[in-house]
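User: Okay, second chain of the day. Same drill as before: sequence in, structure tokens out.
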Amino acid sequence: MKKPLQRLLRQTGFLTISLVLRLPLWTLLFLVRPGKPFDYLFLVYPGSKRDLAGYCPNWLASTSIFMGRPTIGGIISNGTAKRGLVLVVPNTVSEMRADKKMCQAIQRRLLRVQRLTGARAIALAGQMPGVFLRHGLKLEKPFVNGVRGTVYSIIETIETLRTQKTAPASGTMVVVGVGHMGGDVIDHLQGRSWEIHGIDIRRHRDGVLLPDEGEKVLSQADMVVVLTPKGSDFSPYMKHLKPGCLVVDDTHPRLHATISGLKLYKVAVGLPGTFFSPRLPGYRRDWLPGCVVEAIYAAATGSFGSDPMPVFIERARQLGYYAHLDR
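Assistant: Same drill. Structure tokens below.
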């Protein structure tokens, strides 16, 4: 009964804020703006129709009352860092891919909320930055695209595993999904004690496809970094991994081990005293997605995508980020 009750409470809260308290809350945020209660905005979306049901009935989400309209969904506590306002738009990524006008409207409304609240940075969750860019929409200040924050989260997880000697000091590393983020991860780790291979992926209706040599490369891996859109995209290929292989998972929904003998770690970083209220579906309260990592960084340092990756990593560590090493 716990999960149905949580979903009912989340739906009730979302609908109450969206239908009853929207105007009073926006007015309140404007009135308290001089005190700068929020340093950044974080927009999330449902990863699937099932996730959407966690906030809003599917039939209601497609109406003009909700379509493309960010609604207050929670806060991120400030702890030792900055305080964030979580916004929710009840549209899936497939709907956004198919509708440029919806994305334009979302971007305009986010800038309106940013001016209303005085927030310094805006972060977009998951695949949303890529969708906006493919539609030709620019993600300039105050937006962050989340790439640096995500790359940092992956590298911090790997480095912490090595420091704690959970990961071997050398061997063969395979990065599955060599896009912008995968390329940056490889560039940063290249030249160390690892032999690094990247595997390109091709999206398919039922998941992703690897090139012909992909399965052979995976079978030789001592560590695999998974950057497919969803954990289930990589699940069919886990049978090719050798026993004892360490898998670093940066997918959502997360990857679940389908065979025994693997060491699976979820990429997740945190900051002392910083957590979501309420927590995001599929996340722990103190997990910070890469886009939020970058938004906090931008709000704290004033740097929006201009710092080289080594500088970003060093300054992020100075802010107090750490890897959770969640299994």
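The mean pLDDT is 88.

User: Thanks, on to the next one.
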